[in-house]
Amino acid sequence: MLIVQKYGGTSLGDMDRIRAAARRAAGLARQGNRVVMVVSAQGDTTDLMIRKAAQVNRRGAAREMDAYLAAGEQMSAGLVAMAIGALGYPAVSFTGWQAGIATDGVHGNARILNIDAARIQKELEAGKIVVVAGFQGLDPEGDITTLGRGGSDTTAVALAAYLKADRCQIFTDVDGVYDRDPRLYPDATRFGRIGYDRMLALIENGAQVLHDRSVEFARDYGIRVEVLSAFTGEPGTIVGDVE
Ligand code: ASP
Ligand code: MG
């Protein structure tokens, strides 16, 4: 199977969690699967970077902001690839542009237009786990773009579509999609399955579990997205067609 797994910031929040993600991916690869990992910046790195940037330029310089923020995901990708290597499994990290992700030129909220996945395919065929920095791409001018807050989800779903992956898993700090925020409402109920449109409605009402464009992408390309806890690995919620 070809499996795309996305790990959010909390799921990579410290070195133990980085190693746990590396072990999960290496375990699947050792069973004969081809594995692509999409990684977010660690913990609250992106928030801290945004605050730092505001100290030097409060008016926002969108192009430079993207150049700066994309580095958070790039750091995660390198670290995760090294953690996999330390387990004795070959891995290679890619930035969004090395992964062939082409976007429009809307800095800070770019849309993925195309993915030339040849280089990823080549490394998968060579037996490596491919670790892709989420949240970023390259615009027609050759400038770095970012996909909007939470955009690594969209990187993962788009890669799953272009690679024709068998599975697309989003590992996060909650164990699925709930009808309300489970961190605020203890009696919130979890969906075993949820349709794309209902999921989009939840996001519109403030749910942050998935980036809205990742769900639009999944709907348009017919990708089933599994949302599950990075800590338990138990089955979570499937976002897909509900019959
Ligand atoms: N690191 C980015 C953010 O915090 C992108 C992501 O995590 O998906 O929004
Ligand atoms: Mg998120």
Please characterize this protein's 3D structure.
It is a single chain. This protein is α/β, with parallel strands linked by helices and 243 residues long. Helices cover 37% and strands 21% of the residues. The protein has an 8-stranded mixed sheet with strand order 3-6-2-1-9-11-12-10, sandwiched between helices. Helix 1 links the parallel strand 1 and strand 2. Helix 1 (15-30) packs across helix 3 and helix 2 (45-56) packs antiparallel against helix 3 (62-86). The two termini are 25 Å apart. Residues 8, 150, 153 line the site of magnesium ion.
What is the fold's blueprint, element by element?
Elements: E1 2-7, H1 15-30, E2 34-39, H2 45-56, H3 62-86, E3 91-94, E4 101-103, E5 112-115, H4 118-125, E6 129-133, E7 136-138, E8 144-146, H5 152-162, E9 167-172, E10 193-194, H6 196-204, H7 212-221, E11 225-229, E12 237-239
Helix pairs in contact: 1-3, 2-3, 5-7, 6-7
The structure holds aspartic acid and magnesium ion.
